[in-house]
Amino acid sequence: MAGANVWGRIVANALAQLQPTIINEEGTRRAEKLAHWLSPNHGPPLGEHKQTSNALVDVPDCDYIVNGGVGAIFKNDLLSLPRKGMLNAHPGLLPEYRGLDPVCWALSNHDPQGATVHFIDEGIDTGPILIRRPLKETSAQSLVDLRLEVLEFAARLTREFLSDPEAHPPMAQRPEEGNYYGRFENPGALDAFFE
Predict the structure, then answer these.
(1) Could you say which DSSP state residue 121 is in?
(2) How many Å apart are CA 71 and CA 29, to the nearest integer?
(3) Does domain 6-194 have CATH number 3.40.50.170?
(4) Of 107, 31, 109, which Cα lies nearest the Cα of 70?
(5) How many CA atoms lie within 13 A of 84 on its CB side?
(6) Among 150, 131, 132, which Cα is nearest to 140's?
(7) Pairing between β-strand 180-181 and β-strand 129-134 as defined by DSSP bridges
(8) pTM (two decimals)
(9) Per-residue pLDDT tens for 45-82?
(10) Taking residues 107-133, what's their average pLDDT?
(11) Chain center to CA of 123
């Protein structure tokens, strides 16, 4: 499942070998906003996909749903649609960097970059962790490059999980651990990290 934005295209491309059903939300305010996010021309087009005005209307019977750029807080009635769970490819290390702009916040705090695949629950990035891995190396020359690199890393980890779910048992997060971050208001301040 993906949006036709850069995040959705990266996830859909990484999962292409698994032949996912891609549901693309179009014509909503959220879809329009996300379509222009970060780097709108990065990555391949979605290819064959269902178009809908609500990304969860015609969800097929499935084991997993992967959130790829929908940008919403999901409620329990939607989370219960897939047999085994709804997954998120989070571009940050959990539980340290819950919420928005984890790449910016980690960079600002001089912390490692990384990604986490986790089950989505009704909280914000609080569901059980399936894979959590630091990004060992980066060739990024700008903040946009780094964000794209981390998104691609998160998508590869999602493919790794879906290729062998039994190898990645869920690990519950403790609510008191980690931090929630809101939007990083001045990403231009991070340009100095790439000079």
Answers:
(1) -
(2) 11
(3) yes
(4) 31
(5) 14
(6) 150
(7) unpaired
(8) 0.91
(9) 777 666 666 656 667 788 998 887 666 777 888 888 89
(10) 96
(11) 15
